[in-house]
Amino acid sequence: MRKLCVSSVLGCVLVLFAGSRSEGQDGKQNPSTISVVDTSKIQVITVGDGSTLIGRVVRVGADSVEVETSGARVTLSRAAIRSVTVRPASAIRNGEYWVQNPNTSRLLFGPTGQTLKRGEGYVADFELVFLGGAYGVSDNITIGGGVLLPSPGTVYFITPKIGFSPSPKVHLATGAILIGLTGGSESIGVYYGAGTFGDADQSITAGLGYGFSGTDVASQPVFMIGGEKRFSNRMAVVTENYLVPDLNPLLAVGIRFIGEKLSADLGVMQVSDSGHSTTVPLINFMAKF
Hints:
Blueprint: H1 2-14, E1 27-29, E2 41-47, E3 52-60, E4 64-68, E5 73-77, E6 81-88, E7 92-93, E8 96-97, E9 121-126, E10 130-136, E11 141-148, E12 155-167, E13 170-181, E14 188-198, E15 202-213, E16 216-217, E17 222-230, E18 235-243, E19 250-258, E20 262-273, E21 276-288
């Protein structure tokens, strides 16, 4: 049974590749069907030369649109608009535009309750040796997987995930991690469930997982509690903590550096057993597409 508990922890670590979902109020607009939005939203408009305009469309004509920014009204040719992203007006804080958090799928290495939207995906690297990715088959189904790079055989993992959001600030998901070795006859992994409460900038996540080895499933779950708090446009603090049967708690905290399509985590995990304590550095990278 202890082996199964350890399998649960391993599975929870690898579940970082399970998927993500953007904040419910965000979305894309087709430039050809761009429309006026109400004052509770803003639009991030990218034009052909790559420059970005942040404001709100107040008039749509046959060949042009008028955009109200913080300082003026600007007229743009519709043909020049490459993309339009709708964000909540709260994305403007003290006069500064906060980029959308691209990494809402996991804390430092465990899952949140969010999933990728259809057509979204990412590639990720954990501790420089776990390479993986995920893709949104639909708004509610994400398929992911990856490999362990420096392994004598090919260690692989497959990570299906199903989730839904009953409200903009409640996200629930369940999934499984299958971890195997090419040519091996038995796999290990974890079945898990997770719930995230909050938005893309501050949230609390709770989850549990049951480890398995072959057809044997652990009788006791591993519990996880964690959260993320964004304190600036480009940085957030992330914490993640596990209660494991027959083992001491696993505690982790780190800083997440946020870009428009990239994120990087630098943190530490405290592991203790039999009176001895070890601090393990955590280094993660993610690129969304």
